[in-house]
Amino acid sequence: MVMPGRMNMIKRLNQYVLSKIMGIRLRPTGAVFLGGFAGLSLTTSILPTVISTLGVTDSFSARLDLAGFAVYSVILWAIGGWAAQRTASAQAGALVLGLAGSISAAIFAGMAYVAEQELTLLLLLCAAAGLAYGALGGMLIALALGENERGTAD
């Protein structure tokens, strides 16, 4: 048998937990996760494809060479995803995450393949791939998760 005071306490606890869950800012949180996973995708898929297309190495070896940079890419791109969401503009979101993508791709490729003979071409193409990938992702994040007209987020 449950006492009435105890049921009231459980209801208040449930209301408190529900209010805390509903108070989470879902749009910025979603942008951080999407940005972070896009950064992971950059180091595990996009850059190895570009590097293997240039004939520097095969894509599996490129993934191994870039594996140490994945956590830094996730952090940088998560911040970029948050910033792109805050802009709420397709052009500004594309610029923010595109710059993050271009800079991170060039730095990671340069650090992994510093002894490569055609380093300039490798850096330029990796930076271009990061720019394109980041710009598209930033545009999508800003449009889909940007704050609404009144300036409030979910």
Give structural notes.
- The protein has 154 residues and is mostly helical.
- The protein contains six helices and no strands.
- It has one domain (26-145).
Shape: elongated
- What is the number of independent domains? 1
SS-based class: mainly alpha
Helix content: over 70%
Q: Treating each run of at least 4 consecutive H or I residues as one helix, how many helices? A: 6
User: What low-confidence regions span 5 or more consecutive residues with pLDDT below 50?
Assistant: 149-154
Q: What would you report as the Rg, rounded to the nearest angstrom?
A: 21 Å
How much is the average pLDDT?
Answer: 88
Which percent range describes the beta-strand content? Answer: under 5%
What string gives the helices and strands in order? HHHHHH
Largest sheet, if any?
Answer: none
